[in-house]
Amino acid sequence: MAKLLHPKATAVWLVDNTTLTFKQVADFTGFHELEIQGIADGDVAVGVKGFDPIANNQLVQEEITKAENDPLYKMKIKFNPAAHDEEKRRGPRYTPLSKRQDRPNAILWLVKFHPELSDGQISKLVGTTKPTIQSIRERTHWNIANMQPIDPVALGLCRQSELDAAVAKAAKSMDKVMSDDERRKLVSTEQSLEMETEPRLPSSMEGLESFSLSDPRGDEEEKPEADYSDADSFFNLPGGSDDDEDEQP
User: Fold this and answer.
1) From start to end residue, where is composition biased (Basic and acidic residues) (predicted)?
2) Residue 137: CB partners within 8 Å, gap ≥ 6?
3) Which domain holds residue 65?
4) What is the pLDDT averaged over residues 68-84?
């Protein structure tokens, strides 16, 4: 959908040159009805010169006439073939000068916590070049010693929805079996928070997964207890023979 050029100046022109209602002007320009009323009262857009939408090929007179005769009619912007798909972003994202110094830290965060993202995806998320991403991956960047991984969403370089979409797209292209931690990195933030926590052993008990506190001898059949009521059987004395007996005097 094409966007209106200079919407506030267009609103000023419509208020000054038409009998449209405040709501009709607000719907067409994208402002609130009270803000249009402020323009009419001279409290808003003071000093803004009106921008003629008819002369600038954004509106036709027939639309204004229809709207003036019908207060419920909503005007439509004139179709301009040159503005088709103008909202689609081409090339890397533009990063303001004030945030460009934080861009390497954001790249380091993405490389560290989302290694499944391609260089092209990272480039679109934070607005950088592939050689810069490669140097950070290989830790050959000139300032790598002073860099710290920082979430690009926290830095304002991209939106959380854009990051989640890129991660989800990268997850679909991966065929290998992933662990619980890797799975959490490849899903959106909302899905990750809803996942159940996998039980873990303390670090001090790693390697003892197969250790059991139960007595392994418990499965064996219980042996009958020996009867030690007889002294010979208690000391397990061998039975004497007649030849070994002392000769009687």
Assistant:
1) 173-187
2) 111
3) 7-83
4) 78
Name the residue among 197, 187, 120 with its Cα closest to residue 160. Answer: 187
Q: Which of 83, 115, 141 is the last residue of a domain?
A: 83
Of 49, 83, 117, the domain-final residue: 83
Could you tell me which of 21, 64, 24, 15 has the C-alpha nearest to residue 44? 15
pLDDT (mean) for 29-36: 90
Residue 118 placed within a domain? yes
Cβ of 40: how many Cβ atoms within 10 Å? 14
Q: Is residue 235 part of a domain?
A: no
Q: How confident is the model at residue 105 (pLDDT cuts 50, 70, 90)?
A: very high
Same-domain check for residues 13 and 73: yes
Who contacts 235 (Cβ-Cβ below 8 Å, separation ≥6)?
A: none
| C-beta atoms surrounding 241 within 10 Å | 7
CB atoms within 10 A of CB 109: 20
Mean pLDDT score, 191-210: 52
Average pLDDT value for residue range 84-109: 68
- The angle formed by the CA atoms of residues 148, 129 and 90, to the nearest 5 degrees, is 125
In a domain, 153, yes or no: yes
* Domain total in the chain: 2
122 domain-assigned: yes
Query: CA–CA separation, 163 vs 137, rounded Å?
Result: 19
